[in-house]
Write a structure and sequence with these properties.
This protein is mainly alpha-helical and 352 residues long. It has helices at 12-20, 39-51, 63-75, 88-125, 132-142, 147-169, 178-216, 219-225, 230-267, 273-283, 286-312, 318-349; strands spanning 2-7, 29-37, 59-61. The chain folds into two domains: 2-75, Transcription Regulator spoIIAA; 123-349, no CATH class. The protein contains twelve helices and three strands. Helix 1 links the parallel strand 1 and strand 2 (29-37). Helix 11 (286-312) runs antiparallel to helix 12. The longest helix has 39 residues, at 178-216.
């Protein structure tokens, strides 16, 4: 069969009717005589050839149409997608890719940490770079607005720990040791850990979403165009706000957790508040308070750096903002718990 004329979208209906009238025993198609050819014409010819089980050698186009035909064939390739390989080699490959991604994220976080430390030191030398108004605003958002939530959660957790401890210690007639249980647990671990987890979910996600939205709207590029540094303008105020407010929130969480223990002692264990506080005064040491408070600046750095870094890594779409926000929450909570576990082991071996 030899083709000629215009095989374009304007003649698609007529061409389709003409193809249906052709005999069934066509074994070779010569389209080199076609004057004008577009994607609609190419698809009609190739579909006709596919229905007649004609291979690629049975179709012949002119040299000027060969490139168009090749592009249409590539786009119209309807071969089924290759199924996911669940073999050992494929699993090893996926593990390698995941490991490489984790290492890359760690390298980026370390580099971002170094950049912020350098620029914090530069801010000390050049105080005019410090954004006081933005810092105070972020202190209110990250610290003051989180006080009710942190205090409530810490109070309830302190009460739960006291209640669970009393159920076990009651069998030994040692309910009074609930005082040490609640005090040491909250002063050393639970207060700073609960506060960091709350801020990881509340503040790190907010930092990522805020900076990510600015990145999607190209406001970060506009800041650079104006000759300003996005780290000085967006990251350092948030970082300083967290460094100031997280230790204060940790102190609030400590007091709320101890208050929860006092409440359970007074209403469930028949330990009067005066006796509870006197026991706590006799048995507690300042080192427990200092150990717990020393972790707060580290957790503040982790939350602030990861939240801001993930915001700066947004690629410009709404989906990317959501993915980076989720990633920042997962990373901050995971890293906070890992650092807290390592710190607990280190303090234990140092007998602190």
């Amino acid at each position: 069969m030899r083709l000629s004329g215009d095989w374009t979208l304007a003649h698609a209906l007529a061409v389709g009717e003409r193809l249906r009238e052709l005999p069934e025993d066509v074994g070779w198609i010569d389209a080199s005589g076609v004057d004008r050819l577009d994607s609609a014409g190419v698809m009609q010819i190739t579909r006709y050839a596919r229905r007649r089980a004609l291979d690629g050698e049975a179709l012949h186009f002119s040299d000027e149409h060969a490139a168009l035909v090749q592009v249409i064939e590539d786009v119209a390739d309807d071969r089924p997608r290759r199924k996911r390989d669940y073999g050992f080699a494929a699993a090893l490959e996926r593990m390698g890719r995941a490991t490489h991604a984790v290492v890359r994220d760690i390298v980026q976080l370390v580099g971002f940490t170094g950049e912020n430390l350098v620029k914090l030191a530069r801010t000390l030398k050049e105080p005019r770079r410090f954004r006081l108004t933005a810092t105070v605003s972020h202190m209110e958002q990250t610290g003051l607005d989180a006080v009710p939530l942190v205090a409530l959660l810490s109070y309830l957790v302190g009460a739960v720990i006291a209640f669970l401890g009393s159920t076990i210690l009651r069998d030994f007639g040692a309910e009074i040791f609930v005082v040490e249980l609640v005090s040491i647990a909250f002063l050393r671990e639970f207060a700073v850990l609960l506060t960091a987890i709350v801020l990881a979910g509340r503040t790190a996600s907010a930092f990522t979403a805020q900076i990510g939205a600015m990145k999607a709207r190209e406001e970060i590029d506009a800041i650079r165009t104006l000759g300003l540094d996005p780290v000085d303008l967006l990251v350092i105020p948030r970082l300083v706000a967290l460094l100031v407010m997280l230790p204060l929130l940790t102190f609030v969480a400590m007091m709320a957790g101890l208050a929860g223990g006092v409440t359970v002692g007074a209403f469930d264990l028949e330990i009067p508040p005066q006796m509870y506080l006197a026991r706590m005064h006799e048995t507690m040491e300042v080192r427990h308070f200092l150990v717990g408070l020393s972790k707060a600046p580290v957790f503040a750095m982790v939350i602030g750096l990861i939240g801001c870094l993930e915001g700066l890594r947004v690629e410009g779409t709404a989906q990317s903002v959501g993915e980076r926000t989720t990633s920042s929450v997962v990373q901050t909570i995971s890293l906070v718990i890992i650092i807290d576990a390592l710190a607990a082991l280190w303090f234990m071996h140092m007998d602190w």
